[in-house]
Specification:
Length: about 120
């Protein structure tokens, strides 16, 4: 398994963990309103992440495009990390971490060995 796939799987399981931790908030909102915008977004992200992770584990060719789509969620996280902190030290550290992770994720998924690895039809 190429390193790019391993980094992606860590990223996907991190998303699933964050969704799992925030699910209580979504359920609390569903009690007051059956359809809430945040609930719809969380459920779509959950379904997309599970589907993409399943295709990657099965080594399907279609997984590469879906994985790149899921990896694109790191791009809005860069300015969000910059704007989330008041002090300069944590702001710079968080932004550099998210930026480095995004670069690592995209370089890994765009590597030729990932294209070879995801070859099932």
């Amino acid at each position: 398994m190429p390193a790019g796939i391993r980094v992606f799987l860590v990223y996907a399981f991190l998303i699933l963990a964050i969704i799992g931790l925030s699910l209580r908030f979504v359920v609390d909102q569903a009690i007051s309103a059956p359809v809430s915008p945040i609930g719809v977004v969380v459920m779509v992200l959950l379904a997309y992440t599970i589907f993409t992770t399943t295709l990657v584990i099965q080594r399907k060719e279609a997984a590469r495009g879906l994985a790149l789509g899921l990896a694109s969620l790191t791009l809005p996280a860069i300015p969000l990390a910059w704007l989330s902190f008041v002090q300069a030290g944590p702001r710079i550290a968080a932004t550099l971490f998210v930026l480095a992770f995004a670069v690592l994720l995209f370089r890994g998924l765009l590597a030729p060995e990932v294209r070879v690895y995801l070859d099932e039809v």
